[in-house]
Amino acid sequence: MTATVSPVTLQVKDGPGQPDPTPELHELYRGFEQELLVPLWTEIGDLMPSSPRPAARSHLWRWAKLLGLAQRSGELVPVGRGGERRAIALANPGLGGAPYATPTLWAAIQYLNPREDAPVHRHTQHAFRFVVEGEGVWTVVDGDPVAMRRGDFLLTPGWRFHGHHNQADTPMAWLDGLDIPFVHHTGSSFFELGPDKVADRSTPDRSRAERLWAHPGLRPVSQPEAQTSSPIAAYRWEHTDAALADQLDLEAAGHPGVLEPGHAAVRFSNPTTGGDVMPTIRAEMHRLRAGGSSATRREVGSAVWQVFDGTGRVRVGEREWEVDRGDLVAVPSWQPLTIAAGSQLDLFRFSDSPIFERLNADRVQVDAS
């Protein structure tokens, strides 16, 4: 018998540890429903499983298809107040149509036409941009224009005014990542409009933030305080590329430094703390040698991977895909992940690991390939 009182619906269950389904028990359950109560003994298997059972599913989005739809959107959908951004979110098939890549992470392709502005606003959510291809757009964060180019990882920490302007004669697309689902679920979102147009339309090669902060191993003495999010506006591809190449070169020469054989990885970090670039998001870049394979890894928390360059295979749980430049893969909590490179394979990864580490709920399991 299933009761129909909304929003709580209880069902008398058979099985180990369950009481006999008597009329008195049904009456007790109806009393629970009326008072919006749920007894633990009927739900413990779902609430406290022996290992994570995420609602999100592993899924692959093809960049070529996303880009085609974004280009069509550029012809049909204006950018301006009301919609704010021409951004198209990845919707995980296990999350009931919500525009979330995972329960905590939002990922989208954003598209800006030539000579077009995205208006200025700010919000509680932390955001970043990662550029798979193209250039010509500057994102202006708190009045500081930051050039966006292939391979660059750019930050927009929460509550910073930001807009974008495309100074090129060609459109540009990139990956947006935010903690929108986490902020939404915790009921902590604020949003505020800024000017309709970006005030500073200059196009400097380096932002003011980079000139102050982006010198390896050096920190301005004038800025002694730890900052919640990294003050580096852009982590440039030439530095990321060199770091990955050096790790693999050192490995070839017999020196330590790689994550595992043939697998180099770097984590973008906050120079004022040594920790993650933002409180809720971890970002990394990985490189596998041609023909190499990663260990199989499970982690509490979810991640999104994007192929920056190269080809290979990604296996998540029982699903496996051939991947190419720009393709995106959602990896739900505690699902085994293995990556195999065809050519040299570069991948960008972002995850919600900082949340679970702060909650002391993180767990990692690595099995050798």
Automatic annotation (TrEMBL):
For the keyword Secreted, the answer is: no
Coiled-coil annotation: which residues? none
According to its UniProt record, the EC number is: 1.13.11.4
Question: Pfam families attached here?
Answer: Cupin_2 (PF07883)
Which SUPFAM superfamilies does the entry link to?
Answer: RmlC-like cupins
Location of the Cupin type-2 domain: 110-176
Q: Where is this region: Disordered?
A: 1-21
Keywords carried by this UniProt record: Dioxygenase, Oxidoreductase
Q: Name one GO molecular function term.
A: gentisate 1,2-dioxygenase activity
**What name does this protein carry?**
Gentisate 1,2-dioxygenase
Q: Which organism does this record belong to?
A: Saccharopolyspora phatthalungensis
